[in-house]
Amino acid sequence: QVQLVESGGGLVQPGGSLRLSCVASGFAVGGYVMNWYRQAPGKEREWVAGIGTGGSRPSYADSVTGRFTVLRDNTKNTVYLQMTSLNVDDTAKYFCTAPTMGLWGQGTQVTVSS
Predict the structure, then answer these.
(1) What is the pLDDT of residue 90?
(2) What DSSP string describes 23-44?
(3) Residues 23, 57: Cα–Cα separation, whole Å
(4) Measured torsion, CA atoms of residues 69, 2, 52, 44, in degrees rounded to the nearest 10
(5) pLDDT at position 56, please?
(6) Which DSSP category does 88 fall into?
(7) For residue 55, what pLDDT is reported?
(8) What is the rounded distance in angstroms from the CA atom of residue 88 to the CA atom of residue 86?
(9) Got the DSSP string for 9-26?
(10) How crowded is the C-beta side of 33, counted as CA atoms within 13 Å?
(11) What residues in the chain have per-residue pLDDT under 50?
């Protein structure tokens, strides 16, 4: 079965960190562009970060540059989103996608609150 499953979300205080995981099944993440998106209540879904194939450099939305890092572990067939210096504006449901496959995960909720 071809699917993406995210995990790692939760409640964190401002300034804290979280690492989201996206485990792929049915295909190898190393061969595909992988993106992270997020959607906050009442807002449109927005692209957060992406990682290409091979040695291409990851890319980030301006709002998360310097705070978020996207990583890929081909041995675990997993893509990660390491998030640091979180603030309330980062509160959203986070999704990973394999865009060329039209594949989305179910999302994981991140809530930043004191």
Answers:
(1) 98
(2) EEESS-GGGS-EEEEEE-TTS-
(3) 21
(4) -60
(5) 79
(6) G
(7) 73
(8) 7
(9) -EEE-TT--EEEEEEEES
(10) 12
(11) none
Q: How many angstroms separate the Cα of 54 from the Cα of each of 16, 23, 29, 98?
A: 31, 19, 11, 15
- Rounded Cα distance between 55 and 35, Å, is 16
pLDDT at 102: 93
What's at 69, amino acid-wise? T
Six token digits for residue 50? 């992406």
Consecutive H or E run containing 100: none
* Residue 75: C-alpha distances to residues 36, 50, 85, 96, 106 (Å): 20, 19, 28, 18, 22
Residue 97, pLDDT score? 98
At 31-51, the pLDDT tens digits run 999 999 999 999 999 999 999
> What is the chain's length?
114
